[in-house]
Design a protein that fits this description.
23 strands; 3% helix; 310 residues; five-stranded antiparallel β-sheet; four-stranded antiparallel β-sheet
């Protein structure tokens, strides 16, 4: 694991161009210490994460992902109508830096970067972007990744054509063995957009496999979080009969035969009459993050156990 290397890059030991500063609130940022940007931890009722610091009034924030040891926090914000990736990191003195726009998001100012995730070993940052890619429309998202090296973050590279198909590929998610989950429209989709898994073996991703009817249906599915041990999945579905709003979060557990159990709507404690999306559980398994409307929310992950018997 290259966690120390990643921190060194972010802390500026290596090239400062790895991540560039860009935050209007650098001077107003308070001294924050402790895990999770030093925020008071929530109970079983979802709370806005870091109000006025990360979740800003009148702005749209989404995504929420911590590095493997919880010392780097990344999220997305809409800047001039375009998704951009931001990060905050915990310095050696324990204080959290004010959020900055990632240099990767400054490369193509008119293009969108969103849905980021760290690989389990800390060697890669995965994300989706509509940045230029030869042979593909500029109007679509592909999955990209950037390797973390002693020289900084390498120029991002797109995944292969068997992953980046003819339509959008959204919300990449990595699990413990390095395999990749994501959402896309494919010829074998059960409805519209479905969720897929690509096994990682021998240094590459194999052909993606549809997750089947426990997860996918005849409506849109996406924004899929998968636990590191692949024992449960949280994902978004839009248009189901038991839906409460424009997009709801569902949870499904791995069955004894290896298939996924039928997804359970996470109910009104999580879902609203709007859109609830971008699920993520912290690497330590303690807190469940998601996006509600324009804000990042978090809640004690113990609530996930309550769905096992449903």
């Amino acid at each position: 694991m290259r966690v120390v290397l990643l921190f060194s890059i972010l802390f500026g030991v290596f090239s400062p161009s790895a991540f560039a500063q860009d935050a209007s609130n650098q001077n107003d940022w308070p001294e924050l210490k402790g895990d999770y940007l030093g925020q008071p931890v929530p109970g079983t009722t979802p709370q806005v994460f870091a109000p006025g610091l990360i979740s800003l009034d009148g702005e749209r924030e989404l995504n929420s992902v911590f590095s493997p040891d919880g010392r780097i926090f990344m999220f997305s914000r809409v800047v001039e109508g375009t998704f951009k990736m931001f990060f905050s990191f915990r310095r050696n003195d324990g204080t959290w830096q004010a959020p900055r726009m990632a240099a990767l998001s400054r490369t193509f100012p008119a293009h969108r970067d969103v849905d980021m995730v760290f690989s389990p070993d800390g060697d890669w940052l995965y994300f989706i972007s509509d940045r230029p890619l030869k042979g593909y429309s500029l109007e679509r998202y592909n999955i990209w990744r950037s390797r973390i090296t002693p020289d900084g973050l390498h120029d991002p590279e797109p995944l292969g054509a068997h992953i980046n198909g003819p339509g959008h590929e959204l919300y990449p998610m990595m699990v413990g063995d390095g395999s990749l989950y994501f959402s896309a429209v494919r010829d074998n989709s059960l409805g519209r957009r479905d969720s897929y898994r690509a096994q990682y073996a021998n240094g590459k991703f194999e052909t993606p496999v549809n997750l089947g009817p426990g997860i996918n249906s005849d409506v849109d599915e996406g924004d899929i979080y998968v636990s590191s041990d692949e024992s449960y999945i949280i994902h978004v579905a839009s248009g189901r009969l038991d839906g409460l709003g424009d997009g709801d979060l569902y949870i499904s557990f791995r069955q004894a035969d290896g298939t996924w159990g039928q997804g359970v709507n996470m109910g009104p404690n999580i879902n609203t009459d709007g859109i609830d999306y971008c699920p993520m559980v912290t690497p330590d398994g303690k807190y469940f993050f998601f996006t509600r409307g324009n804000d990042i929310m978090w809640v004690d992950a113990q609530i996930l156990d309550s769905y096992r018997s449903q």
